[in-house]
Task: inverse folding
């Protein structure tokens, strides 16, 4: 049992389910941190994985907690937080490879006065596929024009988030009742703000993300958009770096363009107007991609982003027909 004198300052909590393929790289990243190992602990919560996730954690020598049955990421984070010895909780997803200064940066951010802090993924993904490169650039660019520009954020990104443990406990932790959509971090953020806490954006909280393929991301966008649409009216100040007016315009235009294309030739005017509107709304991002990766890759990004924007538009339109967001 740790005593107060030798307790770690930071407890890293990693929810893990079917994470055997990428957890090892995540844990190696924590073995390579600039902060001395005695000042932080790593807790992996295996959410009843059917693969060798638990074995990877055991081999790495970190603390391992196991759920008897699958309960979801929110419950896994809460389990890890309840067992944490540190005064600061650092939530990191199992598919993130942390930058070497992540834990030290999170500690510094909260010691400098923040109650909670969030960061962003690096512009280079952990897996080098064309789609992963696009997705990494998109998320990086969204944060560049939101949190990185202001130094604050309306929400914690659950995959890279630090919060004082006493504050986390005071607001009741993550809400485990949401069914899909991965919005529990946004809902927690609203309760933190209502409690008087401010959320800092700090670029020292960084890591490379292992992105899934197009199909998985499209399904995630569908579920998350429907959940966001239901939550937004309840939560004052609710926003997301990816959910903004320009992205909403792109989604509407892309959906219109897709409908127009599907009804060609009668839909040609709608397809033309929708595509033109989408390109206008997305132009700043596409210019950013072209500068980093070249025009050919920007053209690929434009097509993929168009398809995903249409998914978001369709999900938002279908939301009134959906079920409630809590189980």
Result:
């Amino acid at each position: 049992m740790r005593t107060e004198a030798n307790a770690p300052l930071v407890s890293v909590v990693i929810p893990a389910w079917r994470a055997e393929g990428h957890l090892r790289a995540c844990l190696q990243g924590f073995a390579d941190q600039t902060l001395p190992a005695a000042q932080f602990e790593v807790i992996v919560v295996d959410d009843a994985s059917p693969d060798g996730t638990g074995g990877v954690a055991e081999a790495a020598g970190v603390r391992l907690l196991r759920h008897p049955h699958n309960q979801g990421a929110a419950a896994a984070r809460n389990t890890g937080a309840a067992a944490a010895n540190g005064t600061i909780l650092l939530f990191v997803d199992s598919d993130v490879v942390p930058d070497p200064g992540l834990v030290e940066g999170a500690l510094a951010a909260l010691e400098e006065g923040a109650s909670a802090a969030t960061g962003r993924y690096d512009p280079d993904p952990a897996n080098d596929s064309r789609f992963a490169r696009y997705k990494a650039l998109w998320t990086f660019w969204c944060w560049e024009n939101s949190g990185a520009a202001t130094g604050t954020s309306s929400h914690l990104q659950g995959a890279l988030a630090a919060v004082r443990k006493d504050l986390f406990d005071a607001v009741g932790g993550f809400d485990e009742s949401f069914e899909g959509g991965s919005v529990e971090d946004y809902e927690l953020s609203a309760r933190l703000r209502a409690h008087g806490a401010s959320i800092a954006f700090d670029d020292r909280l960084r890591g490379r993300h292992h992105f899934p393929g197009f199909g998985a991301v499209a399904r995630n966008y569908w579920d998350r958009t429907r959940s966001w649409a239901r939550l937004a009216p309840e939560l004052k100040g609710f926003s997301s770096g990816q959910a903004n007016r320009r992205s909403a315009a792109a989604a509407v235009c892309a959906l219109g363009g897709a409908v127009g294309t599907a009804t060609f030739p009668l839909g040609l005017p709608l397809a033309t107007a929708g595509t033109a509107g989408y390109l206008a709304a997305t132009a700043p991002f596409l210019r950013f991609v072209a500068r980093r990766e070249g025009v050919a890759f920007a053209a690929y990004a434009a097509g993929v982003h168009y398809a995903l924007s249409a998914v978001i538009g369709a999900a938002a339109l279908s939301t009134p027909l959906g079920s409630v967001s809590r189980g």
Residues 268-293 form the longest helix (26 residues). Residues 321-327 have pLDDT under 50 and may be disordered. The beta strands are 10-16, 40-46, 63-66, 88-92, 96-98, 116-121, 160-164, 199-209.
